[in-house]
Amino acid sequence: MTSKSKTLPAPTEQRWKPGVDSAAWKRRGKGLVLPVVALLLLEVVVRLGWVPPYQLPAPSDIFITLSDLAAGPLYKHIGASVARVLLGFAIGAGLALLAAAWVGLSREAEAYLEPTFAGLRAIPSLAWVPLLLLWLGIDETSKVVLIAIGAFFPVYLNGVAAIRNIDRKLVEVGQMYGFSSAQLAKRILLPAALPGLFTGLRSGMSLAWMFLVAAELIAATKGLGYLLTDGRETSRPDIVLAAIIVLALLGKLCDGVLAKLETHFLDWRDAFTGEAKP
Amino acid sequence: MSEALLRVRVERKNFAAVTVLRNIDLQLQPREVVTLLGPSGCGKSTLLRIAAGLEREFNGAVSRGGQGGEVAFVFQEPRLMPWLTVAQNIGFSAGGQYDQAWVQQLIREVGLEGFADALPKQLSGGMAQRVALARGLYSRPRVLLLDEPFSAVDAFTRMKLQDLLLQLAEHHGIALLLVTHDVDEALYLSDRVLVMGGSQSSSLRLELPVALARPRDRRDARLAALKGEALTELQLAHVI
Ligand SMILES: Nc1ncnc2c1ncn2[C@@H]1O[C@H](COP(=O)(O)OP(=O)(O)O)[C@@H](O)[C@H]1O
Ligand SMILES: [Mg+2]
Q: Full-prediction pTM beyond 0.80?
């Protein structure tokens, strides 16, 4: 799993090295065109007075609000939200991986557990909110549990699918060598299931952020969701938009970390990268 | 001859209600090269899996003679772990702490110098099958079982790999039991060709000895003559 491909004497494959070659920068530049044009357009539209600023503040105003917040309470809110997401995600994803391994590896466990999970999955997760509030109160616990529920199912579903999609032929190689169950799990099942597990972890992470906002919109005194509510109650769309931007950046950051880990561990995949020939 | 390295007796092998194999008794002597020849679906793979111990539900017995000779298996597809390098794949049975020197030697012997750190996705089909051969040799087996190992590569690569296989078997003193559906391959490689077939369930229908010294020449007229005889016999035995 920690294997690294070395360059071959044969034709070496082109690798995408962020921040090194100019082609990569060109690609990034292309991605920036649309947002930059949109921002400029918005700025002009608001400055010309076509849209009232109390409904849609100019991008420059949002930026000023953002830097004001950054000088003050922003980090408190970010810290609260990030702590909730990470804790909830760790609990939800951890339990989901255990459940997925159990159900994925044992038909017996699947027979007992899968119908229950299928039933629970049918409940839209936000429907748990009133119960969680009743049972756990409005403080941290209910928020973390809600986020954990949100992160659980994508990780669990992708985990089971990843295990069930493992090539039987590779498993047979291990059986031929007389591997024990533990050896089989560590040396074949886990690495073979890793791509699917990462897919699950990444969608679990994005759902964790979604459920964080839901939890904080309902009841919170700090956090980015609280900032959203606060902005609405004080008729400050610039605060709402600033909070949205921070949420987007944090979500992207978390996904980026997982994506980095994914490319690091799954370097060996022989996958289509989007273009037939570079 | 001395005591057989491997003896496989199958009275009956069923898949559900269907009997696939019946009344088979097969022996492999040290350093012998034996091929199982037969049409697709006649149970060649099943017999080989029984010999390898991968298939346990059958009536009969598998015995390994002598000093508990190791048996290794090479599959039809390379079946390399895509996340491991060539060297790690070859030493896969030993896990992280494989014998580096032995792996390096095997890499040289199968002609893959410079590819020790390559990943399977960087290999051609023929190269991947070379890695699979080396992985089979890693445990220093006395018997190598091969299930149509060269059926997925082109004709040129196949000839090269056949010669490589014979050379490795000779060098390491390994007996080969090889499944194929290619008459030429069977005759070129083996000391004995065992023909499988049968209308309902398969058994060993006939045995064709190939008493030619190695290295053989593919253009050898005697091979061509043997092929003629073999085809006649196959027809008589209603295998083709
Ligand atoms: N695991 C299995 N379950 C049920 N039937 C099988 C299984 N494996 C093989 N068979 C059947 O047994 C017969 C022999 O298969 P196989 O040994 O793969 O033939 P060959 O290798 O000669 O092509 C085929 O009819 C196949 O459908
Ligand atoms: Mg077969």
A: yes
